[in-house]
Structures are given as structure tokens and as C-alpha cells.
Amino acid sequence: MSKKRNSHTYALFQGRRKIYIGYTSDLDRRVVEHKSDGKDFDRVEKTSALMTEAAAQRREEQHLEAYSKGHDGKVPRYNKTAR
């Protein structure tokens, strides 16, 4: 039996600046949660195709690592931990 592909990665943007990288199985619900948490963004972009939750989590880590390499080891504003 194969695992269910129900998750993907996404990013939040403020203008052209990427301010959050994450993964979810329900993007609409997650956007509402981010707005409720007070995150200020004006665009959401899916950054992967559907995949298993474990694969989406690994892809999120890869996106965060790539971002931090290009930004002096920092992660996007709303991501909490440095990589």
C-alpha cells in the first residue's frame, strides 16, 4: 500500500520578499491560521506538487536551508528557528 500524497510546501510573501516557508495538507486553513496569528503577507505560493507529509517536511527543510545559505544563515522573518 502506498502512502497518501496530500501535502505540499508553500511560501508567504510580502511584496517580493519571502517571509515564511512551510508545508501543509490544507493550504486554505493554514492561510487563515497565519492571518489569525498576525502574520502580515500579501501573497501565498505553492512551491511543490502534492507529496507525502514526510516528503513535504523534508522539502520544507531543503527550502529553508537554501534560503538561509543565501541570507547569511537567517531564515524568513516568520520562521522561528535558524537552520
User: What is the count of DSSP helices, taking H or I runs of 4+ residues?
Assistant: 2
Amount of beta strand:
15-25%
Main pleated-sheet profile = 3 strands, antiparallel
Helix content: 25-40%
Gyration radius, to the nearest Å? 13 Å
Question: What integer is the average pLDDT?
Answer: 94
What best-fitting shape do the alpha-carbon axes yield? Answer: globular
The total beta strand count reads 3
Name the structural class.
Answer: alpha+beta
Uncertain spans: none
Strand order of the largest sheet: 2-1-3
Order of helices and strands: EEHEH
Describe the structure.
The protein is an alpha+beta fold. It contains 2 helices and 3 strands; from the N terminus they run ββαβα. Strands 2-1-3 form a 3-stranded antiparallel beta sheet. Strand 1 and strand 2 form a beta hairpin.
Structure, briefly:
The protein is α+β, with helices and mostly antiparallel strands.
Summary tags:
83 residues, alpha+beta, 2 helices, 3 strands
Draw up the topology in text:
Blueprint: E1 8-14, E2 17-24, H1 27-36, E3 43-46, H2 53-69
Antiparallel strand pairs: 1-2, 1-3
